[in-house]
Amino acid sequence: MAVGLFIPCYVDQLRPEVGLATLDVLESLGCRPDYPRDQTCCGQPFLTAGLTRESARLARRFVDVFAGYDSVVTPSGSCAATVRRHLASQVDDPRAQALASRTHELCEFIVDVLGVFALAGRFEARIGLHPSCHALRELGLGRPSERMGGGRDDPARLLLGSIEGVSLVAPSRPDECCGFGGVFAIGEPAISCAMGRDRVSAHRTAGAQMIASTDVSCLIHLDGIARHEGAPIRTLHVAEVMAARELG
Amino acid sequence: MTHAERAARFLADPERASWHDQSLWFLREKRDRAARQVPDWEALREEAAAIKRHALSRLPELWTRFEERARARGAVVHWARDAAEHNAIVASLLEQRGVRRLVKSKSMLTEECALNPYLAARGIEVIDTDLGERIVQLRDEPPSHIVMPAIHLRRGEIGELFAREMGTPRGLDDPAALTAAARRDLRTRFLAAEAGLTGANFAVAESGGLVVVTNEGNADLGTALTRIHIASVGLEKIVPEVADLPVFLRLLARSATGQAITSYTSHFHGPASPEGELHVVVVDNGRSALLGRPAHFEALSCIRCGACMNTCPVYRRSGGHSYGATVPGPIGSVLEPARSPATHASLPHACTLCGSCAEVCPVKIPLPQQLLAWRGELRSHRPGGVSVSFGLRALAAVMTNATLYDFVGRIARSIGRRLPQSVLGALLGPWTRGRTAPVIPARSFRQLIAERERKRG
How many other C-beta atoms lie within 10 A of the C-beta of residue A119? Predict the structure, then answer.
């Protein structure tokens, strides 16, 4: 099975260690993805800013770069959601729909494609899991608090929870948005930061030492707020938590 | 003014913003508890959505049937193309009958049409009888929420208002005492009124009947004590059959306030008495145009429960007035740009696309997709300003070429790493208002992976 690794632009440029952790985790599970050098961006920031021509051009590019793989995996719930939900409507290409359904968020890929439901190893930490809204409500990875029944377990929660020593704390309003929202973060900075402060404080109150998420975008935002507020809480991508396991 | 500017103003009082957020989150939680008690909640939403989509596809047929049946029951049906026609119809009905005093129960449609000032200018006194609407009427401000018009106000502020307007003792902030004072004041208005105006939550084609839900019984009182009942109804309020009502009634109050059902569910079939009159004014005001927009027509399914507002993390923290529109929140941000794109172009951007609104919506309106579609259509608003918009376009151009992207990334990071935090912060502008700038790494993932591969050979 040829697996393509999609490292979103902001992960590539701002949190490269998340890309490395993703690769380490996949390799530890016997999966050796290929990283096509021609990749850049799925187009999400432009799509959500209303720049549809720009996002469509990048969506087409994404199809050209990744259509040849059996599966595509990315350490980002929101980029995976952009591909899954918005690729086919932007690109008039029969390969687009198929590629959209074969593109997975990292934890979803580990559980659904690799068939791994639990991780060996040990990592001692009290973690607050921040569900990415797009992973939760667009990809359906987890049960949104608004919905009455149905749905599936959150693969990120499943995997992190399986690591010995990890204790997942329970913040209030467990799936409220962190306020990042792409261009929203700079278009509506007042609300964006107010939302972020509320999340940081909910995780701290719940006793979390670190906030983990499937999305680096949420984490960069929350990290910026935590440091601005002087809140002693770290932000880690789920891949970093999984890669930090001590395998005995 | 944009939503961001008005929101920043609301948040300038963080204590009030936090109180507002918590009051509305309390309602969201009440909604969750109420919905959880209905075993087939999600199926009920599906059914309601299907009925509404069906009705929207057959508006002419359903309204024709409604008019026929309503007329058979003695009602008169009027058709208003827009707000001006609606107001003119209502005014002429009142003027022909010499009505000088009108009591009005909850109606967002008459807010949309700005009926109150129109009638006031013609010497007709309009008293809003819904407590929340009465409060904002006395304050001379628009409602901030479609179900709870005065949710932005605290007890103390209402006490002050009543002391000024109704002569209640200063410092009164006991809800029961305030409600009793409003009740006494409203009772005299009800008794003096010569006509009653209501909205309608549902118009039923099969029966020619109207359904109005309230918690205060003010719609019943206003129509029972007066001879003339005028009902202003939006074109989208029609449902085909009486049997459809329970589907919506089970969803509406639970979604709105977390109640199993409202205190009153009033069914109006023709005039209340043989000498009475019932006039139904059916209003289009842009609704048929919205019906013709494939990306947005489903917003006409809205039953005005307000659940999308209560769950919206932006609405809760920015207050209803920050939207500068009759209908605020997620649904307002879809509906209002259709009416006035230039005025409301910033509203579809007042959203993180978190998707919570679509999950609580009892008629499953795909609100995030609709907001996203508006962003693509309304280019007049540039979130973050012209420089951000220019920067994004330049960035998109860079992203079309991996070599260029790599090159620009290296340069930008190298500059970013050399700048002092203060300069970097200034360059990042709104990002660093409330957020510390990220630590910029020396190497990108693609550089690190190339190094790793070289080492591995």
Answer: 23
Cα B319-B285-B4 angle, rounded to 5 deg: 25
User: Does position B423 have pLDDT exceeding 90, yes or no?
Assistant: no
Name the residue of chain B whose CA is nearest to A132's CA.
B354
Nearest CA of chain A to the CA of B146: how many Å? 20
Chain A residues touching residue B375 (CB < 8 angstroms)? 48-50
Q: Verify whether the Cβ–Cβ distance A181 to B396 is below 8 Å.
A: no
Q: Tell me which amino acid residue B295 is.
A: A
| C-alpha closest to that of B63 among B313, B190, B235, B199 | B235
Quote the distance between the C-alpha of residue B10 and its chain's center: 18
B446 and A181: CB-CB below 8 Å?
Answer: no
Q: Which amino acid is at B138?
A: L
B105 closest CA partner among B211, B252, B257: B211
- Chain A interface includes B417 (CB < 8 A): no
At residue A166, what are phi and psi to the nearest 5 degrees?
A: -80, 125
| Euclidean distance between CA atoms A4 and B414, whole angstroms | 29
Helix (H, G, I), strand (E, B) or coil at A29: coil
**B101/chain A closest Cα distance in angstroms:** 43
Q: Torsion angle of alpha carbons B262, B54, B210, B279, nearest 10°?
A: 140
Q: Under 8 Å CB-to-CB from B222, ≥6 apart: which residues?
A: B103, B104, B105, B129, B190, B193, B196, B197, B198
Q: How far apart are CA A204 and CA B142, in angstroms?
A: 38
User: Tens digits of per-residue pLDDT, B156-196?
Assistant: 999 999 999 999 999 999 999 999 999 999 999 999 999 99
d(CA A73, CA B206): 53
Residue numbers in A near B438 (CB within 8 A): 14, 220, 223-224
Residues of chain A contacting B7 with CB distance shorter than 8 Å: 188, 190-191
Over residues A150-177, the pLDDT tens digits come to 999 999 999 999 999 999 999 999 999 9
CA dihedral B396, B424, A223, A87 (to 10 degrees): 0
| Mutation site for A-interface testing, chosen from B354, B379, B414, B439 by largest number of A Cβ within 10 Å | B354
pTM of the model: 0.97
Alpha-helix residue ranges (DSSP H) falling in B57-154: 59-72, 83-96, 108-112, 115-121, 131-138
Is this prediction's ipTM beyond 0.95? Answer: yes
Q: Which member of A19, A49, A227 has the closest CB to residue B375?
A: A49
Residue A97: band (very low, low, confident or very high) from pLDDT cuts 50, 70, 90? very high
How far, in whole angstroms, is CA B269 from its chain's centroid? 28
Residues of chain A neighbouring B395 (CB-CB closer than 8 A) = 45
HSE, side-chain direction, 13 A CA sphere, residue B275: 3
Residues B85, B283: Cα–Cα separation, whole Å: 8
